[in-house]
Specification:
Blueprint: E1 4-7, H1 12-27, E2 35-40, H2 45-48, E3 55-59, H3 70-97, E4 101-104, H4 111-119, E5 124-128, H5 135-141, E6 146-149, E7 159-161, H6 168-171, H7 175-185, E8 193-198, H8 205-220, E9 225-230, E10 244-245, E11 248-253, H9 259-265, E12 268-271, H10 275-284, E13 288-290, H11 300-309, E14 314-316, H12 323-336, H13 338-351, H14 359-368
Parallel strand pairs: 1-2, 1-4, 2-3, 4-5, 5-6, 6-7, 8-9, 8-12, 9-11, 12-13, 13-14
Antiparallel strand pairs: 10-11
Helix pairs in contact: 3-4, 7-9, 8-12, 10-13
């Protein structure tokens, strides 16, 4: 018998929280074989989740495509069939696994299992970590046992503030010790600013384009710095790499395997404002400059960033024609102001207390006993 099924996925913005939920359940005393996961064959979960050792099932469900390309049109035509097949498979999985609780982290991949759980009378916990809940979460929340939310004032029914799910490496980290170790391993001394630029799991062309002018601005201000530019794999070829500009060196990588350790070592983070990134920045405590992705649904990234910015734990720079100039000015300001960075780190750590706690696991446990 399975204790909990975690469902959701499609993108890393859903898969990373799912992994975090499963890790938290294991840390609470549940064996990996008591946990199962259901997602999409077409999502990032198909390569990320099997490594955890939990039982996995990947359904043919896919999301609706907004593009008008032939491939997208054909995918949308097949959508109803894939959804129907996935719902049948989900009902079989619920009978096979007989879970005591189902935990949905949202995304199109969560729909079949969440629906099957409700139909079978199994308690459903919806986990919402964006300021603006996604469509799947809003729909499922109506019949959920409870909604685990990261922010106050949620519009979801039966909302319980538990913080956002973050990975074990973040929850259990000693940021001071990790900072010292990571900087030593990377050859970064105390007099060198580490600026990390990351555009989310897929990368950001806009942020990548800001790196050369940022390096020039830091050098002009006399700042000795290393910029680590995590381009995203789709931008790993063709991204301009200045290498070194005066007192500034630039390291370009397509993907960072140990982002939590890099964040702990970072003096100033430049990033998009996806929910997982904001949650990890708060839990670890890092001075952040967020550049919300303007294409996010319901402008959710602006609201995610605003949560920390309103507490003095981050700043927000809106994307526009002057982004390289405005972003460079803000990063230079923070690099030259140690007191401002320290204040932001302190406020971020305070904001991330719930993310490091056990509130989410406690709620899932309560649901399993309902």
């Amino acid at each position: 018998m399975v204790f909990a099924v975690v469902t959701g996925g499609g993108t890393s913005g859903h898969v990373v929280p799912a992994l975090a939920v499963m890790e938290a359940l294991v840390d609470a005393g549940h064996r990996p074989d008591e946990i199962a996961y259901a997602g999409s064959r077409r999502g990032m979960e198909s390569s990320m989740v099997p490594q955890t050792g939990v039982q996995c099932a990947f359904l043919p469900v896919s999301g609706l495509q907004r593009s008008l390309s032939l491939r997208s049109v054909l995918a949308n035509i097949a959508f109803p069939f894939r959804l129907a097949v996935s719902r049948v498979m989900a009902r079989r999985l619920v009978r096979e696994w007989s879970p005591r609780v189902v935990v949905s982290v949202g995304g199109y991949a969560s729909e079949p299992l969440a629906r099957a759980a409700v139909a079978a009378g199994i308690p459903l916990v919806c986990v919402s970590y964006d300021m603006v809940p996604g469509l799947a979460t809003r729909r499922q929340s109506r019949r959920a046992f409870a909604c685990a939310v990261a922010f106050e004032g949620s519009s979801l029914p039966r909302a319980v503030i538990t913080g956002a799910p973050v990975r074990r490496s973040v929850r259990t980290m000693d940021p001071v010790a990790c900072r010292a170790q990571t900087r030593a391993e990377r050859g970064i001394d105390d007099g060198c600013m580490l600026v990390t630029v990351v555009g989310g799991s897929l990368g950001s062309a806009a942020l990548n384009a800001c790196v050369p002018p940022l390096a020039a601005a830091l050098a002009a201000a006399g700042v000795r710095a290393r910029i680590v530019n995590v381009t995203g794999r789709r931008y790993s070829h063709g991204t301009e790499v200045p290498g070194a500009v005066g007192t500034v060196t630039v390291e370009t990588v397509a993907y960072e395997d140990d982002m939590p350790s890099l964040l702990a070592a970072t003096d100033v983070l430049v990033s998009r404002a996806g929910a997982s990134t904001v949650a990890e920045a708060a839990a670890i405590g890092v001075a952040a400059v967020f550049v919300p992705w303007p294409g996010a649904a319901n402008d959710e990234q602006t609201r995610n960033a605003g949560w920390l910015s309103a507490q003095g734990a981050a700043t927000t720079v809106r994307e526009g024609t002057d982004l390289p100039r405005s972003l460079s000015a803000e990063v230079v300001r923070l690099c030259l102001d140690a007191d401002a960075r320290h204040e932001m780190v302190t406020r971020a750590r305070a904001a991330g207390v719930a993310n490091r706690g056990t509130g989410l696991v406690d709620l899932i446990t309560d649901a399993s006993l309902a």
